[in-house]
Amino acid sequence: GAIHQLTSSAEALDLDLRSCWTWNTKQLFVSLAASYVTPSNVAHDAFVYDRIVTSKTDANLTIPRARSKYKLREPEGLLGAEIEWILRWHQVRSIHWSPYDPVRVVNAIP
């Protein structure tokens, strides 16, 4: 089914975010999403992984082969869709945190 298609199309990722850590970093919020468009041209991001990293030593991650921890709202729209894997991370600063801090986004295709 659709969930099997989503999870079988992602590979495990090794990710080193230690260089994102500075003296002013409190934590990093990391997420992996499968972005796709349904046959009715509705765009969706299905988040399959997220994690809060609270120390520089923990910022060297292995994201296991994607297994969605959240229920898909429109799984039927995923059948046959082209999936773009998007990795995002947000640095939460210890001092002067703002919701307008930049969120980094990269295409996560291995």
List the helices and strands and how they pair.
Elements: H1 2-8, E1 13-16, E2 25-37, E3 43-53, E4 60-63, E5 84-93, E6 103-107
What would your notes on this structure say?
The protein has 110 residues and is mainly beta. It is built from one helix and six strands. The protein has one helix at residues 2-8; strands at 13-16, 25-37, 43-53, 60-63, 84-93, 103-107. Strands 3-2-5-6 form a four-stranded antiparallel β-sheet, with no helix packed on it. Strands 1-4 form a two-stranded antiparallel sheet. It is elongated. The model is unreliable at 1-8 (pLDDT under 50).
Strand order of the largest sheet: 3-2-5-6
Which segments are poorly predicted (pLDDT under 50) over 5 or more consecutive residues? Answer: 1-8
Shape: elongated
**In angstroms, what separates the terminal alpha carbons?**
23 Å
| Tally of strands | 6
* Oligomeric composition of the shown chains: single chain
Helix content: under 10%
Give the strand content: 35-45%
What is the mean pLDDT?
75
Following the backbone from N to C, one meets helices and strands in this order, namely HEEEEEE
Instruction: Provide the structure class.
Output: mainly beta
